[in-house]
Design brief:
Length: 311
């Protein structure tokens, strides 16, 4: 499997190539592919909420392939136990002690498929690992691999047999996105083309996991000017004083917004964040962190952005 030649090793070129490879499999969804890649570059975790069959699982598979990451898929069901995710210690008679057998969480990219079909206890086991980047069993701490990225898919809450994620657990996800239906041209290409799983098998990685880690480090170096920090603070304060929202955004939400904006700027080939970067990532970063005063998560991030002046 060949990687991108060194002479083409500039971040913007590499990331454009990654987006292009994703677009060969997931048709007509460049914006969602950029959102997912930005989330990974910002060292966050991604929640994809949409109907079955619109490409959520395929996007996770493609990302793992093009980024050269070890991939595991966990199908969440009502009878899934925390040990099925984290692993279990089994007594070995020949060694006369317990030996830990790692679960599927010990992968660089983990797909938690239909996370809201599992019970809250099982959901929490995954989300603790996401937050701490480690698993503790029997008093022993086991570090998770790096990079470590969770993509969780979630069915809409009106579907039967779902356990909605509470606000404290939704906050663990840097971004929440929707795939949506493909446009007519993309859907026609899907109908006429080869099976997506067959195409996945022939997909070569664009970069290595080590190169991805260096790109993640570059994100932290993207410059944020003082007026841009004022803008982010003004957005946070607007949610806290507006009667439209049940609660305002936390400082962690502000940090998440900046991290995603930095990653979006790097994707655009820039070394500094612009207000439009913040505006572009804001719906995916803060939409699931806000609740309307009337209840539920149907809030207008667009209206919030329009109410705060751009520096």
């Amino acid at each position: 499997m060949s990687l991108v030649p060194e002479k083409q090793n500039k971040p913007a070129h590499i990331l454009d190539t990654v987006i292009g490879r994703i677009g060969q499999i997931v048709l007509g969804k460049e914006h969602q592919a950029r959102q997912a890649l930005a989330c990974l570059l910002a060292r966050g975790h991604l929640l994809i909420e949409d109907l079955p069959g619109v490409g959520k699982t395929t996007l996770a598979h493609v990302l793992a392939r093009v980024l050269g990451l070890h991939f595991k898929r966990i199908q969440f069901t009502a009878d899934l136990l925390p040990a099925d995710i984290l692993g279990v210690s089994i007594f070995q008679t020949d060694k006369n002690n317990f030996v830990f057998h790692p679960g599927p969480i010990f992968s660089q990219l983990v797909l938690a498929d239909e996370i809201n079909r599992a019970t809250p206890k099982t959901q929490s086991a995954l989300l603790e690992a996401m937050e701490e980047h480690q698993v503790s069993t029997d008093g022993v701490t086991h570090k998770l691999p790096q990079p470590f990225f969770v993509i969780a898919t979630q069915n809409p809450h009106h579907l039967v047999g779902t356990f909605p994620l509470p606000e404290s657990q939704l906050d663990r996800f840097l971004m929440r996105i929707e795939m949506g239906y493909p446009d007519r041209d993309a859907e026609r290409a899907l109908l006429k083309g080869r099976d997506r799983r067959e195409l996945l098998e022939s997909l070569a990685p664009v970069i290595s996991a080590d190169k991805l880690a260096s790109l993640q480090q570059l994100v932290a170096c993207v410059h944020v000017a003082e007026p841009l920090l004022d803008y982010v603070q003004n957005l946070l304060e607007a949610t806290r004083r507006a009667g439209e929202f049940a609660e305002g955004l936390s400082p962690r939400a502000g940090l998440s917004l900046l991290a995603a904006a930095r990653a979006w700027a790097l994707l655009a080939g820039r070394d500094m964040v612009l207000p439009e970067d913040v505006q572009t990532v804001a719906p995916a970063v803060i939409g699931h962190r806000l609740r309307s005063a009337a209840g539920g998560h149907s809030v207008s991030v667009k209206r919030l952005l329009e109410s705060v002046p751009i520096p």
